[in-house]
Amino acid sequence: MASAAVPLRASASFGGGLAGALWDRNETAAAQYENPNHHTLSLYVSGGVAFRRRLQGGYMSSFGTGSLCLMPEGATSEWEVSGPVRMLHLYISRGAFQRAVVEITGADPAHVFLRETPYFQDPALEGVMRQIMLPLDWDEPAERMVISHGAQTLLVF
Fold first, then answer.
1. Fewer CB within 10 Å of terminal CB in the chain, N or C?
2. Rounded Cα distance, 126 and 128, in Å
3. Is the pLDDT of residue 78 over 80?
4. What 8-state DSSP symbol labels residue 110?
């Protein structure tokens, strides 16, 4: 999103291959994300009512505030954005995902894939993101440790 000049409000590495960013956007545009090298869990903190994800044969519209999107590593996606939105992104490296797969399931991570899931709602995921990740100071080391724990928790949902 930085390449599209979208204002970045906060960003931090949470350790263990996890990072976050808080973005504000207020425009009408088409956006494309090509072959990202990480998984992204996105929460529409506010706004985003007129956002749509282009899919084969049509579009899927956001629910606005509270919408979540899961975008796997390597999945190119196209979006139509319109109006204001504040988005929280949790970036999950390949290594962090693979470690979680092995630790939690014992499966070979080469055989476990995330399915792209645009626009879903999940009160538990949203709650962790809103109650742990958003209100804390990402620059304060002790609070970043709490955020890191919350981000790790999101991997098991």
1. C
2. 6
3. yes
4. G
Of residues 132, 134, 121, 34, the one with CA closest to residue 75: 34
8 A C-beta contact, residue 55 and residue 65: no
Span 24-45, mean pLDDT? 93
CATH class of 2-155: mainly beta
Domain ranges of the chain: 2-155
Q: What tokens appear for 153 in the block?
A: 């928790």
User: DSSP letter at 48?
Assistant: -
Q: Which two tokens stand for residue 2?
A: 């930085």
The whole-angstrom separation of Cα 86 and Cα 43 is 8
In this structure, the number of other CB atoms found within 10 A of the CB of residue 97 comes to: 21
Strand segments, DSSP code E, in 6-141 are 8-15, 18-33, 38-47, 52-55, 58-61, 68-71, 77-93, 117-120
pLDDT category at 7 given cuts 50, 70, 90 is: confident
pLDDT at 2 over 70: no
- Token pair listed for 12: 């931090």
Query: CB–CB of 52/61 below 8 Å?
Result: yes
Q: How far apart are CA 99 and CA 17, in angstroms?
A: 10
